[in-house]
Automatic annotation (TrEMBL):
GO terms for cellular component: plasma membrane. Keywords: Ammonia transport, Membrane, Transmembrane, Transmembrane helix, Transport. This is Ammonium transporter. GO terms for biological process: ammonium homeostasis. Residues 33-68, 553-574 are annotated as: Disordered. Belongs to the ammonia transporter channel (TC 1.A.11.2) family. SUPFAM superfamilies: Ammonium transporter. Residues 102-531 form the Ammonium transporter AmtB-like domain.
Length: 574
């Protein structure tokens, strides 16, 4: 009986596969620990290359990023067309180092894009007559801040940082001003890397510079919103250099540059020293405290407060800008927090990004819900401030807490920012058009303190040189040591940033002046300060009338019930 063709094909394939397996089995190497039989009458094989000393460290890159130093100890050698083990090991190490550099650079690019978010949020919360001026400050601070930081800011902040381990950088940034206090070394200021000259022109150092520079620019941008609609542009330029060359670098050195706040754990046993993973204190609190000093010196906008001290809410002109800008900032925050690992291979990146996202969302929901329940409307601008408050608060602890804790921190920050906005306006009688003092200053301090309560001890072993110990908060059995270190860092920020910023604004006030003339403020700053209108299709007369006579009954982020208001002319929306 003949078999069908299909069955014969299947049988043939099965037999072919069986013989193939038998052939592979007979030709396979012997099991581990057994030597394979040597083939008969074969040409002697070439000698195997000497085993490399894998205990030697991988070569370091030179100032151009090339690993030319590997040529003498681990140059590419071939044996039968195969790379030697030491070369493969070195290639893997180089790949990891280059991956870390690439991750830090990409994260820096994301943070740089946050400038667009700040520009949109601040401009949307200002009036149409000041659009060009507000936008100009946000783009100008990028150039001003970068140049100031390039000249000396980076050297003062990171000049004593030491080798950049995750990038296998050489020991270039090693000079630090320090003194003895209580028998312990207090390191206060670096001084390596001015102008990125000499040895500082190294790939690892340049990567660190770019990443730190965009953080500094974020700090410098924060006061532009708080002081908007009355700040003279020339005074703003002077401020930009002071912050990028002095205010930010000094405190940044204390926390991130190996300074005395970071050493509170090593020197005094206070947890792992002051910890700020991505900038709640170094970036946001510094910007918020600087904005507080500036708001005191400049005073409120014309028409903000009545004679009896009650506040009038002055509306922004474009809520769409505010929402879009907030979303851009939230997107950039993944680079802000996630990039602060400075290492692509860091297994904590996913947790950092998820906690960041959750805290921002929780802040948005609690702020929106609070406004809805207390003031009757889910104000979108205050909800946006709640989202930003949650992001600011989680920036310091994002690597040291779990997702549930991130929701708690962000949710509290969403309500805290509303209370702070009311306090700044009602009690302090300060005018902050965008709520920067509250979002960045208050919530930045709050976020730093949360490490001392909620750090779970699962990440950060050896942080700040405290051997074999990860940050552990009070609620996880860590005692008050870490919380004390966090509180000292927050206090040090206020005690350094506020006096220096206040003195700087005071000196500017006595020389070139901080504030525009009242006539220019009433007409709008676009033409007097910048020479152009933000919206070219507007009639300047309409802008003038609207700016001079209109005081709205409600405004961005501030419920209409906060103060008495009057309307002498209809508002003109751009």
């Amino acid at each position: 009986m003949k078999r069908p063709l299909s069955r014969r094909l299947v049988l043939g394939l099965a037999m072919f596969g069986w013989f193939g397996l038998v052939t592979l089995w007979n030709g396979a190497p012997a099991a581990k620990g057994q030597a394979p039989d040597a083939p008969a009458a074969t040409t002697p094989a070439p000698a195997a290359p000497a085993a490399p000393d894998v205990t030697k460290p991988a070569a370091s890159p030179d100032s151009t990023g090339n690993y030319t130093g590997a040529g003498t100890t681990g140059a590419l050698t071939l044996a039968d067309g195969k790379s030697s083990l030491d070369t493969v090991t070195r290639d893997v190490a180089m790949l990891k180092i280059n991956g870390n550099m690439l991750w830090a650079l990409i994260a820096g690019f994301l943070v740089m894009f946050m400038q667009a978010g700040f520009a949109l949020v601040e401009t949307g919360l200002c009036r149409a007559k000041n659009v060009a001026h507000t936008m100009a400050m946000n783009i100008a601070i990028y150039g001003i801040g970068m140049l100031g930081y390039f000249i000396c800011g980076f050297a003062l902040q990171m000049g004593g940082f030491g080798p950049i381990g995750v990038m296998n950088g050489p020991d270039i940034l090693h000079n630090m001003v320090k003194f003895e206090l209580f028998g312990k070394p207090f390191e206060v200021l670096g001084y390596s890397g001015f102008f990125l000259a000499g040895d500082a022109n190294d790939m690892s150092v340049l990567t660190l510079f770019l990443f730190q520079m965009v953080f500094m620019d974020t700090t410098a941008t924060i006061p532009t919103g708080a002081l908007a609609e009355r700040w003279k542009f020339s005074a703003f330029v002077a401020y930009g250099f002071v912050l990028s060359m002095l205010i930010y670098p000094v405190y940044g050195c204390w926390v991130w540059g190996g300074g005395w706040l970071a050493d509170l754990g090593v020197n005094f046993g206070l947890g792992n020293g002051h910890i700020d993973f991505a900038g709640s204190s170094v970036v946001h609190m510094t910007g918020g405290v600087t904005a507080l000093a500036g708001a005191i010196i400049l005073g409120p906008r014309i028409g903000k407060f009545n004679k009896d001290g009650s506040a009038n809410a002055i509306p922004g002109h474009n809520i769409a800008m505010v929402v879009l800008g907030t979303l851009i900032l939230a997107f950039g925050w993944f680079g802000f927090n996630g990039g602060s690992t400075l290492a692509l291979a860091d297994g904590r990146i996913a947790s950092v990004c998820v906690c960041t996202m959750l805290a921002g969302s929780a802040g948005f929901m609690t702020a929106q819900t609070y406004m809805w329940m207390v003031f009757g409307k889910p104000d979108p601008t205050m909800a946006c401030n709640g989202l930003l408050a949650g992001l600011v608060a989680i920036t310091a602890p994002c690597a040291f807490v779990n997702p549930i804790t991130a929701v708690i921190i962000g949710g509290i920050a969403g309500v805290l920012v509303i209370w702070s906005v009311l306090f700044v306006e009602r009690v302090l009688k300060l005018d902050d058009p965008v709520g920067a003092i509250s979002v960045h200053g208050v919530c930045g301090a709050f976020g730093c303190l949360m490490i001392g309560l909620f750090a779970d001890g699962k990440y950060g072993a050896g942080w700040n040189g405290v051997a074999d110990k990860a940050p552990l908060g009070l609620f996880y059995g860590g005692g008050v040591g870490q919380l004390t270190a966090q509180a000292i860092g927050v206090a040090a920020n206020v005690l350094w940033v506020f006096p220096v910023a206040y003195i700087s604004f005071f000196v500017i006030e006595k020389t070139i002046g901080n504030r525009v003339p009242a006539k220019d403020e009433i007409e709008g700053l676009d033409i007097p300060e910048m020479g152009v209108l933000g919206y070219v299709n507007e009639d300047p007369i309409i802008v003038k009338n609207a700016g001079a006579e209109h005081i709205s009954t409600h405004g961005p982020g501030v419920p209409s019930s906060l103060g008495k208001a009057e309307t002498k002319a209809p508002v003109h929306h751009a």
